[in-house]
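Backbone-to-sequence.
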């Protein structure tokens, strides 16, 4: 990976920041994209990455990002489309604005990133990772917009892999389960309040039926991203790699038998 150029969206915190630190440690030169300049610059101080502040779901912002990337680095070898967000509520509780916000944050951001970066990746026969979720494989309660957008990301992954594989570009999706990030910490707050418990106890509660009995760390997900971008994954494209501690293999209808 030494000397390669990798762009990360949502790079200021959580999985995106962990990816930046992981890759920088191997000599990768980074492009850090996000909406908030302060966390991006904090990551850049450690990694030396080029900070591009804006919305990954905006074609207007990509129109200024790409020239800046070409001026600084001359191209791209890899992309981690990590930017995302919430999409809470059942369908009847989801307003038009809420629906559009969920699609914008989780699907439009990946599409706009891919469309802007693919010409550069073709030149260097590069690779892209789209950050999906186990919400791309199953439906949680009351997350209609998020679940729909993440399912759509798998379709986008397969379409890109099919169309651009002949041009030398690999595209894969990564589907994490619970990961201890600021966004997930916020999702634990209702549980903490309802049960009067700590953050650690809330994570233990939501992973009680996960075979590994714990959430992932951002660093663990970053390592999987690194693998998918590397030559070690050179035959893998169009795949949806699950990194969820085993939660998606659990046969839910049999859980009651473990409580007998």
């Amino acid at each position: 990976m030494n000397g390669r150029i990798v762009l990360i969206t949502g790079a200021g915190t959580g999985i995106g920041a962990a990816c930046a630190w992981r890759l920088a440690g191997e000599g990768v030169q980074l492009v850090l994209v996000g909406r908030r300049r302060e966390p991006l610059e904090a990551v850049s101080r450690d990694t030396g990455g080029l900070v591009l502040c804006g919305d990954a779901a905006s074609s207007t912002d990509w129109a200024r990002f790409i020239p800046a990337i070409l001026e600084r680095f001359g191209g791209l070898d890899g992309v981690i489309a990590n930017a995302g967000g919430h999409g809470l509520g059942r369908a009847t509780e989801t307003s038009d604005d809420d629906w559009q916000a969920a699609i914008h944050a989780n699907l439009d951001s990946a599409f706009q990133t891919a469309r802007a970066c693919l010409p550069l990746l073709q030149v260097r026969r590069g690779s892209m990772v789209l950050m999906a979720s186990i919400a791309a494989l199953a439906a949680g309660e009351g997350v209609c917009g998020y679940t729909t957008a993440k399912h759509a990301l798998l379709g986008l992954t397969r379409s890109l892999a099919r169309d651009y594989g002949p041009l030398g570009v690999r595209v894969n999706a990564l589907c994490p389960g619970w990961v201890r990030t600021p966004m997930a910490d916020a999702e634990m707050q209702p549980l903490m309040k309802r049960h009067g418990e700590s953050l650690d106890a809330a994570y233990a509660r939501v992973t009680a039926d996960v075979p590994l009995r714990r959430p992932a760390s951002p660093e663990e997900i970053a390592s999987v991203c690194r693998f998918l971008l590397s030559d070690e994954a050179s035959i893998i494209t169009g795949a949806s790699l699950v990194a969820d501690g085993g939660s998606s293999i659990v046969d839910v209808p049999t859980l009651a038998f473990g409580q007998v």
